Amino acid sequence: MREVEDPGELVELFSRDRPAHAYGLADLEPQFWERSRWFRRGDAAVGIVSLSADITTVYAISSADPSGALTLTADLIDVIPPATMITGPVGLAETIGERCEIEDLGHHVKSLLSRPELLPDSSAVVPLSVDDFQLLEGLHLTDPGAAFVLDSMLADNTFVGLFDPGNGSRLIAAAGTHVVSVRHDIAAIGAVFVEPAARGRGLGAIVTAGVCARLKGRVSTIGLNVDAANTAARRTYERIGFVDCHAYEEIILRP
Questions:
Q1: φ, ψ (nearest 5 deg) of residue 84
Q2: What is the rounded average pLDDT for all residues in the chain?
Q3: Cβ–Cβ contacts within 10 Å for residue 138, how many?
Q4: Close Cβ partners of 223 (under 8 Å, ≥ 6 residues apart)
Q5: Contact 73, 92 (CB under 8 A)
Q6: Residues 139-147, mean pLDDT to the nearest whole number
Q7: Mean pLDDT, to the nearest integer, of 71-87?
Q8: Cα(12)–Cα(16) distance, rounded to whole angstroms?
Q9: 8 A C-beta contact, residue 11 and residue 186
């Protein structure tokens, strides 16, 4: 095992399978690289990535050497901060669970937009800016199980929303991106959320399409992550042109 000093070698490794590594490539941007540590053994690479002053995550996704990535993650467990979320190959929960206490967040799937012609019309969406963060945060609070959203994510100028036709100030659906890297020509859609009372009307598909429209001309590879057990979301994404490309697991280290 060695610590990686040149992000270029990780760009080369991850670019072999770009759809699986949207987050990995984006995590190599200078603002993240400068405060992160990456380790490698052969084709297995693991990053302890500081996304902000308060958020650290571990990136251990691997399509080149999944078993090696699992072993490397286990070997690094003593230097990974408690309460850190780790994303890694299938088998992650079992491997790390043998070493320490974890919260198993289950199986997830990475999907790639392969047929953009299937995206629905998104002309009804409204662009959202950093100034709209409180509205977006309020929308997510309507469901305790909603994925996280940070105000910094809106700075990429990709977020869109739909407002209640009967109340133009009430946001009922929104989506944006977790990461965008023009340098590496890749983006990952995230924070797709529809108010519980408005679900079942295809609004999630519309806001997702709206994000794709805002990414057009900026990047050519667009992906997203979805809980493998969320069959409704997976069917929606498949219907609008996304295809599954990589399975993985998520865990959180218990303090």
A1: -80, 140
A2: 94
A3: 12
A4: 19, 22, 110, 111, 112, 113, 186, 187, 188, 189, 245
A5: yes
A6: 82
A7: 96
A8: 7
A9: no
Sign of CA dihedral 156, 221, 242, 58: negative
Stretch 117-121: mean pLDDT:
97
pLDDT of residue 168: 80
Instruction: Give helix 203-215 / helix 231-239 axis angle, nearest 10°.
Output: 50
26 Cβ neighbours under 8 A, 6+ residues apart = 32, 179, 180, 181, 184, 186, 187, 188
Tokens describing residue 63: 């399509």
For the chain, what is the total number of helices (H) and then of strands (E)?
Answer: 8, 12
Rounded Cα distance between 98 and 33, Å, is 30
pLDDT surpasses 80 at 145: no
User: Residue range 18-30: average pLDDT?
Assistant: 92
Q: Distance between CA atoms of 37 and 4, rounded to whole angstroms?
A: 8
Given a cut of 80, whether residue 146 has pLDDT beyond it is no
> Hey, which bits of 42-185 come out as E strands?
44-50, 56-59, 85-88, 102-113, 126-127, 160-164, 167-181
Q: Residues 186, 18: contact at Cβ < 8 Å?
A: yes
What is the average pLDDT across 134-162? Answer: 88
In this structure, what token pair is assigned to residue 64? 């080149």
Whether the CB-CB separation of 242 and 116 falls below 8 Å is answered with: no
Q: Tell me the residue type at 169.
A: S
